[in-house]
Amino acid sequence: MSAGVETAAAVATLGAARPRLRLPLGIVAGGLMLLALTGATALAPVLLPTDPNAQDLNAMLQPPSAAHPFGTDNYGRDVLTRVLYGAGIDLRIGVLAVVFPFIFGSLAGAVAGYAGGWADTLVMRAVDVITAVPFMVLVIAIVAFLGPGETNILVAIGAVDWIIFARLVRGEVLREKHLEYVAALRAFGFGRGRIIFRHILPNAIAPAVTFLASDIVLVILTASALGFLGLGLRPPAPEWGLMIAEGRTFMYTAWWVATMPGFACMFAGIGFILVGDGLADLLRVRGQ
Amino acid sequence: MTEPALAVENLRLEIPTPRGVVHAVRGVSFSVMPGETFALVGESGSGKTMTCRAILKLLHPPARITGGAVRFEGRDLLRLSERELEGVRGRGIAMVFQDPMTALNPVLTIERQIGEALTDAPRDRGERRRRIVTLLRQVGIPDAERRLGAYPHQLSGGQRQRVMLAVVLARRPAVLLADEPTTALDVTIQAQILRLLASLQQQLGMALVLVTHDLGVVRQVVHRVAVMYAGQIVETAPTAELFARPRHPYTEGLIASVPSMDRSRPLVPIRGAPPDFIGLGDGCAFAPRCPLAAPECLRGEIALREVAPDRLSRCLKAEIVGARVAV
To answer: Residue B183, Cα to own-chain centre: how many angstroms?
Structure first.
């Protein structure tokens, strides 16, 4: 399960629901970028059968060439191979780390916004407390407490990230619940759960879905930053942040070691942001 | 004598505002018999919509009910919990709204919105779809099969109101509250929707409470009318008698201000503006605009009294109102 496949599926369903609607350019361009990246990652074991951690001490810090398009690092490892294997790790973290906050945050926000009263107070005070501490500081604190490792990164980001979705969805639900169709649903005797989840949520979820794409970028950068700080994955894992951290010592003599994973990170980021923007356009059109 | 399907007793409702408390509904009582069409008539802001919404406790804050009772099937709806009310709404009492543009969920198809409302939805998809198509045909939507997948924005205003009525039909309520169901529609469509409403009422044997400011509508389909002014009922009467001989100067003014097709009768507007609800004192709220007003009209609360069999009026001079009607 990769981000590209998910996006492609989402694009396909939205397209099917609206056959006459033209897909925004952003979705197409971003989708292609992500597809290319995930495709290359999936095919990496076939195209580049070398072990990403295989050292070749005869070929240390070699500049990009036909044999090593992205050059080699200080252990003679092929940077292109490591970048592509790293894409698997970073995209997985990016997608997994936002799925749970997205689901939990949206549900919490929807219930808080619709029910009001103590439920709203409970959720929103929790949100306030988490908001009071800067995002990165809190994530670092939680990872430092739990210890490094992929699962702990997911837990730490999830524990902090849900508040954004909760706030987004709550705001929309607050607006939505005073609209006439909600009164009409109540007048026909529909239960609260059905009104919130089947009727209001589909109308209120658009901003959260849009933010989801940019949030994946944020999370990949966070994971990379944690790797850079030594709180993420452990060497020699080919994680982008870790590779940048390792390569920065050679910035002046061998720029490619740190720069190539940086480009990869940027490429994925632009892809997700384009898809997110396109999705926002699509949902705006649909909402009218 | 049979039991009323719905009885509202001395309903009071207020809205706190920064300028002071607005007493939007001030002691409204009425009852509706099964199968009867009853209308609440009045100008904008007279409290008729508020009354209607209060019956199902569908008020938006800060509006709040401060007194009274709504009797339905032996229970006072105002004392029920939200969960208990969910059981009454829809199957017991349902409501259709003024603006069909906003009363349907914009992101769900017609099929889903009606399908959800079916009280005993068949499990089989095909069977279910046939039921929905039947409902759509009953409310006069042409080409019903092809409309199933449509979203509300793909339908016209009249068609959306028909879809709302299909939902009502799926719920089979005992009482239907219709809050200005034709106001947002084209004049040509209004008559069709009214006829449809009347036929649904007969089909289901519902009691129908029609909220409207349109006396033309009242004349066409309503059995009994209550005229509201400033949050109170000022007159109730069987429709024909109300038009033949109003017993309150406000009713008389309303009837005189309806445009008529023949030009024999001049259009007479009611002087002045609707009252400011803040600081409504004792006495008749209509007195400042009333051609018959006398000093005693401003003293003390004026009670709704029986001025003829089955006719109530909140006017001290009800007996002489009718005499002036042939202006």
So the answer is: 12
Find, in chain A, the residue whose alpha carbon is nearest to that of B55.
A187
- pTM equals 0.75
Distance to chain B for A190, nearest Cα, Å: 6
Over 50: is that where the pLDDT of B105 sits?
yes
B149 touches A: beta carbon within 8 Å? no
Q: How far apart are CA A4 and CA A8, in angstroms?
A: 6
Mean pLDDT taken over chain A = 83
- Out of A180, A191, A287, name the one closest to residue B103 (CB): A180
> In chain B, what are the domain boundaries?
248-327
Every domain of chain A and the residues it spans: 3-287
Phi, psi of B66 (to 5 degrees): -110, -5
- Predicted complex ipTM: 0.77
- Domain at A3-287: CATH architecture: Orthogonal Bundle (1.10)
> Position of tokens 């909760």?
A166
Two tokens, residue B89 = 């709404």
Both tokens of residue A110? Answer: 């929807």
Interface contact A189-B87, CB threshold 8 A: yes
Distance from CA of B151 to the nearest CA of A (A): 10
Q: Using alpha carbons only, what angle is made at residue B177 by residues B173 and B182, rounded to the nearest 5 degrees? A: 120
Q: Which of B96, B103, B171 sits opposite A189 (nearest CB)?
A: B171
Q: Is B89's CB within 8 Å of A186's CB?
A: yes
Identify the closest residue of chain A to B168 by CA–CA distance.
Answer: A188
User: What 8-state DSSP symbol labels residue B153?
Assistant: G
Tell me, yes or no, if B106 comes closer than 8 A to chain A by beta carbon: yes
